Amino acid sequence: MADTALKADTALKQDPGTLAVGLLAADPAPGSTPGPTAQEIAAIREDFPVLHRTVGGHRLVYLDSAATSQRPRSVLDAETAYSTGCNAAVHRGAHTLAEEATDAYEAARSAAAAFVGLGPDQIVWTRNATEALNLVAGVLSDPLTAQDPHAAPLALRPGDEVVVTEMEHHANLVPWQRACARSGARLRWLPLTDDGRLDLTRLEEIVTPATRVLSFAHVSNVLGTINPVDVLVARARQVGALVVLDACQSVPHLPVDLSALDVDLAVFSAHKMLGPTGLGVLAGKAEILQALPPFLTGGSMVSTVTMETATFQDPPQRFEAGTPPVSQTVALHAAVDYLTALGMDRVAAHDRTLTARALAGLRDLPGIRVLGPVQAVDRVGAVSVVVDGVHPHDVGQVLDASGIAVRVGHHCAQPVHRRYGATASTRASLYVYSTPDEVDAFLDALSGVRAYFKKA
Predict the structure, then answer these.
(1) What is the DSSP string of 319-331?
(2) 37 and 17 in contact (C-beta within 8 Å)?
(3) How, if at all, do strands 425-429 and 407-409 pair?
(4) Which conformational region is residue 267 in: left (phi greater than 0), alpha (psi within -120 to 50 degrees), or beta?
(5) Residue in 86, 180, 248, 412 annotated catalytic
(6) pLDDT tens for residues 23-38?
(7) Per-residue exposure over 87-98, b if at least 16 CB sit within 10 Å of its own CB, e if not
(8) Distance CA 194, CA 374 (A)
(9) What is the mean pLDDT of residues 348-367?
């Protein structure tokens, strides 16, 4: 570790933005994947300018990364460098700036694809993951899809069924509600157990030969639960259903290989993985993307247009109508490079360590109920709690007064809250820059909430 410390000190003097990369590139001990040390986490935090600010006179404790993660200096600098150095329309010009912009845009696509085990032709840029899910649900329920000879086998029709889960984010529920209403298909869902996991006892009864689509979260944004993708995919393959994976909470926190998971389509968001807002990803098997007709139409996605008809480009351009978010893709490329240098196995190990610390501390707090698994097994560090007798918004204000930023509300997942008898919750969510001291600060502040409101 002495050599690593020396390298870290040298890196700090040379370029603070490369400090974390230099530290975590070291090989872990054989046969193990340890999380980063306290020194390494301190180095990582130096890469995030916002973490140096104060809130209400207190040092910021940012525990809202499941909503939006913070960005390291390298990501901020990458977007600025693109915007000030070669900002131009991609795929449309022959001048130098346009060529540089196009190269940067497509390099980002390749990097994002490799990060999740896919090829560049399997990555579609969208405005966010919500748009990506609406794209899939909208196309599959479009009457024109049933008339398309290539897409017809994927089209939803009366008598078909779409299966989701009771833990879904609204973005992976409401689009399917609408798709079923348009197509005449039926919406069904897998229920939850009392401890916050999927109840698979009726899996074969719910996912049947009538199931055309099985769409589910890899990780719950409320419960933190990691769902058994292999079990669900295996059942979908038995009945011939299309598998759609909401990977928004897994890609930032776990090593994810979409090819190995064998899902047909998946979505994730840049702003939850150290990247910018305004950018999402639809990833998919090449043959599935090739079969799907476009969702949005206009410029950039067409091949030939007459006054009567139009033909469309191959994926991914077929799904990228209009001017794309080029600077955001450049920033995501930098975020992918940052996470790759850290090592996703080590990111996941850090997450498990902090999650276990948070859950252990919550067990000692009276009047606090955890939504989701109470052990750090097959779950990530999205820890939602209900404080007896205190509204989550009040909890959030008390924590914010101590500089602790958490999410309050139903987190765009009303059904899962309803399942556990809560209208809302307070969620602390951890990430690569979170520390044990921050977990302790959250627990300490939370411990005083009920007394503050005279509920003890």
Answers:
(1) G--SS--HHHHHH
(2) no
(3) antiparallel
(4) beta
(5) 412
(6) 443 334 444 589 999 9
(7) ebbbeeeeeeeb
(8) 11
(9) 97
Residue 235 has pLDDT above 50, yes or no: yes
| pLDDT at 5 exceeding the cut of 80 | no
Biggest alpha carbon–alpha carbon distance for the chain: 72
Question: Is the pTM higher than 0.85?
Answer: yes
> Which residue's structure tokens are 């809560």?
422
How many angstroms separate the CA atoms of 428 and 446, rounded? Answer: 11
Architecture, CATH, for domain 79-340: 3-Layer(aba) Sandwich (3.40)
Query: Domain 48-63+343-452 has what CATH class?
Result: alpha beta
If you count DSSP H runs as helices and E runs as strands, how many of each does the chain have, helices first? 18, 17
Measured CA distances, 114 to 108, 117, 281, 336, 423 (Å): 10, 5, 13, 9, 40
Predicted pLDDT at 32: 57
Domain ranges of the chain: 48-63+343-452, 79-340
How confident is the model at residue 455, as a pLDDT?
58
Q: What is the mean pLDDT of the chain?
A: 93
248 is known as an active-site residue: no
